[in-house]
Amino acid sequence: MARKKLIAGNWKMNGLLEDGVALAKGVAQEVKAFGKSDCEFLVCPPFTLLASVKKALRGAKVALGAQDVHFAEKGAHTGDISPLMLKDLGCSYVIVGHSERRADHFETDELVCKKAAAAHAAGLKAVICIGETEAQRDAGKTIEVCSSQILGSVPEDSTAADTVIAYEPVWAIGTGKTPTAADVEEVHAAVRKVLAKKIGKANANKMKILYGGSVKPANAREFRRRQPQGCRFHGDCQKCLWKIRKRNKKYGNSFVGRPPAGCNFSGDPDSDAAFRRRRS
Asked: With contact defined as beta carbons under 8 Å apart, do 258 and 230 qualify?
């Protein structure tokens, strides 16, 4: 069975109530307009908008996800949110290990793994992020870095039903730069190989591996052409994605499942520029 495509938008730290709800309603409207689709859709707004966005998405086949989670069910963790709280709000996904969390909050592979395991225990699907910096890429360490992150960040009992991998090269976030389709294909193949050793070949072959980072109409065709397997865009999925992206342009990034079109990790250009400098 082919892996179903996943189109996911990470709004990052963007959006107040009025415009966040308007955006969510727009996404819902576009998804409904296409009726039956072989794509899954996911939005990940800030914590403050989760409940309101959930309501705005009512009746549309769009999943709700959060951008981070604590590994504990409850306790003295001021400012954090637990997996059960997210589940209670109606979330079905949560992003863990995003490169901005790894850099800004010094999150390690071990911590990301604990968060993913906690998400699984609460019935949430974990979107586990990996990706190399520009310095690591220039040093020829892309595969080494991504493989190490997979080994350290993915719980051993992960399955294709509860885990998604998102490959996001840090150097491509908001820069307009992208790896070639062949480069992405190479990383995805290496990641799937490492996953097979850790969680078994059957699970690895079924697991979605997404790509994010400055994908646009000019290069989407090549990404799609070079990805013979898994989730690639065609027909209504691609058209729907671009409508969603048009509404979503000022709100952070999009992961795209496996890997072809519509990924754009750029949020605020100044913030992204500072983010990249911190990783140089």
From this structure: yes
